[in-house]
Design brief:
The structure is a single chain. The protein is α+β, with helices and mostly antiparallel strands. It has a 4-stranded mixed β-sheet, with helices on one face. Helix 1 runs parallel beside helix 3 and helix 4 runs parallel beside helix 8. The longest helix is centred in the middle third of the chain and has 21 residues. The chain is globular. It starts with a strand and ends in a 15-residue tail after the last helix. Bound molecules: glutathione (GSH). Glutathione binds next to helix 1.
Length: 228
Amino acid sequence: MQLYIGNKNYSSWSMRPWVLLREFNIPFDEVMVRFDDFHGEASMFKRRIAKVTPTGRVPVLVDDDLVVWDTLAIAEYLAERFPQHALWPHDTRQRARARSVCAEMHSGFSALRSHCPQNIEASLPAVGERVLKEQAAVRGDLERVQALWTDALQASGGPFLFGTFGIADAYFAPVAGRIRTYGLPVSDNTRAYIERVFASAGVAAWVRDALAERDFLQFEEPYRTSRS
Ligand SMILES: N[C@@H](CCC(=O)N[C@@H](CS)C(=O)NCC(=O)O)C(=O)O
């Protein structure tokens, strides 16, 4: 299997399936396609990705002659292809809950995503403070994600959202990363969950690679002018 991804420092959608594959030690080859501004014919990223999928986006999973695009479809495919791993919870009701929170993440939290874009190597607490003060919708997203995590952790008993690390945790790992990058204020329990996510093998490996990239892409950087 090959997984096409973008820059590890910036690409939150790529992070989810990559982290999942690594966490469960499922062998795959990574194909990193460096981000550019995604504009038209001149975009090398678009040209390379167009050879694999007409959507022009990452992540994309290629398994022999099968192409699976979009994070949720990739997660579902992996769960079916590797039933020996509990990517989703075994229990039907828990699985329905896990799917609900992933679907909510997939189509929601747009304020947090747009005002606090993924930037693993950066530390921007002053930006986070300003954004929280100015953007009620970001405050709403932060409140909602904390409530969602608290409910899931209470119901499962932890340490991860549905017990052991699974698709839901991979889905929220980039949100946990944004909370760290922007120093957003969260409860002690939420902070402890975030630390567990970052200590998990898959996420820790992604972060290591992201920090080693040292690539600065201006169009992904609304808040910095350089890496230093
Ligand atoms: N719904 C898609 C979203 C994928 C997505 O937007 N990926 C971004 C990178 S994180 C991308 O490829 N952007 C290229 C573009 O916007 O042209 C998924 O879940 O895979």
